[in-house]
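stuck on whats below:

***
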Amino acid sequence: MSPVMSRVVLRRLALAAAASATALAAAPSVASAESAPRSLPLSDPQSGPLASTRSGHLMPLPIPGGESGDHLVVTVSHAGQADGKYELTCHPGGGSHPDAAAACDKLDSGTRWGKDPFAPVPQGSMCTMQYGGPATAHVTGTWAGRPVDARYDRGDGCEIGRWNALVPLLPEVHG
């Protein structure tokens, strides 16, 4: 695709996103427990800029200038020597995390529009019945301009995979 064509496609996508956001903001909301926000999975999780994650959770567009505010607090328990509370700042990297540069690189490589790197395992997932040990982690803060509040454990194959996908942000643990 030529550079001119790429700009045209990107401009159209930006206009479509802005129009969608305007339409959603104008839609009336009903306040009840049944009207909790729901994300709708898109048809093909591998295509286009609006691709959904396996769980259907969509991560909103980053707030302009949000990268300078990338700051996470990682609290790890029952993981042996890796237990503790670590701060991670990215762009530029720093904090008390034992491998801040690699953790920031891992998060950067997994951050895509429409994909929440901190999404939970989807309800109803078929997971192997294996136990990865008692380690737990809680990640809070801001990533890509969005709030993060995610909990991790190693109670089954899906949770182990979710944990391992964020190593070295989370420590490598062997159950």
